[in-house]
Amino acid sequence: DGGITQSPKYLFRKEGQNVTLSCEQNLNHDAMYWYRQDPGQGLRLIYYSQIVNDFQKGDIAEGYSVSREKKESFPLTVTSAQKNPTAFYLCARDPLFRTGRTYEQYFGPGTRLTVT
Amino acid sequence: GNSVTQMEGPVTLSEEAFLTINCTYTATGYPSLFWYVQYPGEGLQLLLKATKADDKGSNKGFEATYRKETTSFHLEKGSVQVSDSAVYFCALYSSGGYNKLIFGAGTRLAVHP
Questions:
Q1: Inter-CA distances, A115 with A10, A22, A84, B4, Å
Q2: Interface check B97 vs A, CB under 8 A
Q3: Is residue A76 within 8 Å of A46, Cβ to Cβ?
Q4: Which of A4, A24, A70, A71 makes an SS bond possible with A108, Cβ 3.0 to 4.6 Å?
Q5: Facing residues of B33 across strands?
Q6: Interface touch A48/B98, C-beta < 8 Å
Q7: Confidence grade of residue B100 (pLDDT, cut at 50, 70, 90)
Q8: pLDDT of A68 above 90
Q9: Predicted confidence band at A50 (pLDDT cuts at 50, 70, 90)?
Q10: Which residue in B96, B100, B93, B46 sits closest to A34, CA to CA?
Q11: Residue-level pLDDT at A76
């Protein structure tokens, strides 16, 4: 799992409801990311966080919110303001500040969210 | 801005055929380059990487060489297997503004026995 877990694997919600996707890592890495993947497309960055209690918007942050209260956890909330929430959501970790390697990201297994 | 362009798929091959998936990039400076692989229903796995010009990344029989003169990072494998069927993503690491991966759209590979 690349040292990162996401739950649940499949999630179904009714339109107008907020939903929170879980992302946990156990390798004490500082940087964590959320991506969205749509069929036939590459990944797009939603939010990222490099330290606890701090996070930054990515390219498509509208309609999403995050928190980073603990280093190991970076939950993503898909709000009712997100117009097209059905997608595959991927969380990633990055040992950017902990190793001498260059900027590798390791991904969780993903959560497939379906909103009807 | 920085971007990655991959050849469109799907790429369909017979087992033991030679594979090339083209990837070109646009970036300032000297980005690190990556190939990721995604099997059906799963997250992405780092396949290989290269951090400077003329570096060759390799893993599991796959190779890619960082060509700065042609701004390319094409993925190759000499003999594909059915188990290589997946979607392959080329990516670059951009440090401008904030550190993030920029992905290509992905290329689906289907290998038949």
A1: 11, 17, 8, 30
A2: no
A3: yes
A4: A4
A5: B50, B92
A6: yes
A7: confident
A8: yes
A9: confident
A10: B100
A11: 97
